[in-house]
Amino acid sequence: MNTSPPRALIAEDEPLLALALQQLLGQLWPQLQIEARVADGISAVQQALTLLPDLLFLDIRMPGQTGLEAAAEIADAWPEEQALPAIVFVTAYDQCALAAFEACAMDYLLKPVQAARLGQTVQRLQQWWQQRQPVQGKDLAMHNHRQLEQLLGLQQQLLGQVPAALQIIQASVGNQIHMVRVQDIIYLEAADKYLRVLTAAQEYLIRTPLKDLLPQLDASEFWQIHRGTVVRVQAIASAQRDESGRLGLLLRDRPEKLAVSRLYATRFKAM
Fold first, then answer.
1. pTM
2. Which residues, other chains included, contact 57 with Cβ-Cβ below 8 Å and sequence gap of 6+?
3. Sheet harboring 185-191: ordered strands across?
4. Minimal CA–CA distance to 55: which of 27, 36, 30?
5. Which residues form the domain of 16?
6. For strand 107-110 and strand 86-91, is the pairing parallel, antiparallel, or unpaired?
7. pLDDT digits (tens, 9 = 90+) for 161-180
8. Is there a single domain that holds both residue 138 and residue 234?
9. Of 75, 122, 182, 218, whose CB is crowded by the most CB atoms within 10 A?
10. Which of 82-96, 127-141, 168-182, 235-249 has the lowest average pLDDT?
């Protein structure tokens, strides 16, 4: 039985909704300590990795990063010796997506959040908190691994709701506009305000964010391997682990070695 007070972080970009959620939680679960309240996905990641709370209340649609993107980045960078936090998504998504949220989160709340529905969530969280047992070693690694796979699966499911149709990327170089065939792309990498588009022989810069371009790519042909990197599967020559266990990819037609984050390492398993 866990007797210590639980700690939580709220990420919600609408101040009144964030305040209302905090006040309701204070009434329904006085012992719950709200460590921080942030208004965007990037701040949610920074504060979560600094404070290491037990619970995350994440709005799905936030500036900078969505709640889903923030959850994935938090899970990827979370200390390996510590169990991942429980996640409650706050969402305006329709019914077709709710089963997916429920599969990878402790619970989900529809906007506007109702006190009665939040009460059910609190009861579920309280039961989880009281029954949570310390997990260590291989059991902890397996527990975190399952949650990472669930988050990745949810990302793919939601991205899959948009049909892949992109065949050509238009990239400006000086006074010229190059028509880059998607089939020629080796990988794409976010860089500051630009997106690097790399073929076997050329590099182009475009202003379209990776998160906007990714839903237009065929998920069976392009794999996300890091928050800011997507690679064409057929361009991968091999996957190798370094001395620290981190996975990297060698490419067929490019000299770079691409790092694979922990979240996406589950893609690479021996058949």
1. 0.65
2. 8, 9, 10, 11, 12, 21, 88, 90, 109
3. 203-206, 194-199, 185-191, 229-232, 222-226
4. 36
5. 7-159
6. parallel
7. 444 468 899 998 878 889 99
8. no
9. 75
10. 127-141
- Where is the domain boundary, 105, 130, 159? 159
Q: Give the length of the chain.
A: 271
* Three-state DSSP state, 224: strand
The CA distance from 22 to 31, in Å, is 12
CB within 8 A of 247, min separation 6: which ones?
Answer: 239, 240, 241, 259, 260, 265, 268
Tell me the per-residue pLDDT of 84-128, one tens digit each, with 9 for 90 and over.
898 998 887 655 456 556 656 788 888 888 999 999 999 999 998
- Cβ neighbors of 201 (< 8 A, separation 6 or more) are none
* 216 Cα distance to chain centroid: 18
Q: Does residue 271 carry a pLDDT above 50?
A: no
